């Protein structure tokens, strides 16, 4: 892997980590709608880091299940993240705008934090020198 490729992967991981850290801070302030959004973003960027590692041209999607399907082409162990992807995917848009959507509860934000952390840790363990 050349330096530019390694740097790009690291940038995706850094953005993933920052989204997760932001979500943790926002959780302490009870901003659960923003917490779940940043958790989805963290998981999305972690999966995209893996796809960059595999030299896949990234799709412009926030759908974690779609990204997971791409990851599965390289490693079937990603299957264990399917439920996680299905839970987090709606958070990319569901609570972003005013409307009829009920705000997420604290337990949903806690679950989203745990899932985002799981996804990031899973990806990091698969990448060299992370």
TrEMBL record:
Domain HEPN: 13-119
Recorded superkingdom: Bacteria
Pfam families: HEPN
Gene3D superfamilies tied to this protein: Nucleotidyltransferases domain 2
SMART domains listed in its UniProt record: HEPN
SUPFAM superfamilies: Nucleotidyltransferase substrate binding subunit/domain
Protein name per UniProt: HEPN domain-containing protein
Originating organism: Woronichinia naegeliana WA131
